[in-house]
Design a protein that fits this description.
Layout (H helix, E strand, L loop, with lengths): L2 H10 L3 H12 L3 E2 H12 L5 H13 L3 E6 L2 E6 L2 H15 L3
Antiparallel strand pairs: 1-3, 2-3
Helix pairs in contact: 1-5, 2-4
Length: 99
């Protein structure tokens, strides 16, 4: 994993709403945009527009942290944490090893 890929992953998880979305998808994969919007409102208590959540999903997708599949006409999202693990290992691995 190169420095640019590491930066994209860490930038993607820098925003609290993106971390919330990623945690929600990790708990229950295969959510549609509507389901993600509903869980954001239910858990955070603050409504976010579909456009805002779509922008967050786009950033997570560019970082490789979510995978998108189509089920008929519905776009579903699932968490993919392997890029996060790789980025942490590449960027911080030397500091996390015990001596």
């Amino acid at each position: 994993m190169n420095d640019e890929e590491i930066d994209i992953v860490f930038k993607a998880i820098a925003h609290p709403e993106r971390r919330h979305i990623l945690a929600s998808l990790h708990k229950r994969s295969g959510q549609s945009l509507f389901e993600i919007c509903a869980s954001s409102l239910a858990e955070a208590g603050q409504p976010l527009s579909r456009q805002t959540i779509s922008q967050h999903l786009d950033m997570l997708e560019r970082a490789g942290l979510i995978e998108v599949t189509w089920m008929g006409r519905t776009k579903t999202h699932s968490a993919n944490l392997s890029p996060l693990r790789e980025a942490v290992k590449a960027a911080l691995g030397a500091y996390l090893e015990e001596k």
